[in-house]
Every structure is written in structure tokens, then in C-alpha cells.
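User: Can you recover a sequence for this backbone? Please restate the input before giving your answer.

Assistant: Of course. Working from this structure:
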């Protein structure tokens, strides 16, 4: 694994980050003492799926739009 000093890392940050993103990790050192390791983040292998996640899990009755109509009318005092 490559070690670079802080000055070199600041000077060539874009290039170093690009190489790290391609899998080449490196260490940043200060006065020869290793301080941090820079490496690529792992991307989620499986994207989060939300749209249609309950598809096929339940069904809507044909009379859905009229279910409870009498009870609702009674609660609002309609039809008395």
C-alpha cells in the first residue's frame, strides 16, 4: 500500500482520490507517521426497492368505494 505525506496528498488529492476509487488504497502520513488510510467506499450491491414493494400482497375489494357508507352517513347525521 502506497504511503504519501500530507503535502503530497494536498497537491495531488484529485488524482489520489481517483486511484482510491479504482481500488488502490493509500495511507497519508505526517512526519513519516501513518495517520489515515484512504480507500474506496463499497457501493450497495442491491439498490433499495420501494415502488411496488407490496405488489400481490393484498387485494382491494370491488365494493371498496362504498364500504361503510351507511355507518359514515349515520356518524354525520345524513339521511335522518
Amino acid at each position: 500500500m502506497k504511503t504519501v505525506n500530507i503535502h503530497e496528498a494536498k497537491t495531488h488529492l484529485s488524482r489520489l482520490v481517483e486511484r482510491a476509487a479504482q481500488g488502490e488504497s493509500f495511507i497519508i502520513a505526517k512526519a513519516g507517521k501513518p495517520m489515515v488510510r484512504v480507500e474506496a467506499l463499497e457501493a450497495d450491491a442491491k439498490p433499495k426497492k420501494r415502488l411496488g414493494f407490496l405488489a400481490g400482497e393484498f387485494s382491494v375489494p370491488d365494493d371498496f368505494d362504498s364500504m361503510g357508507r351507511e355507518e359514515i352517513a349515520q356518524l354525520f347525521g345524513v339521511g335522518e
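That completes the design. The chain has a mean pLDDT of 88.
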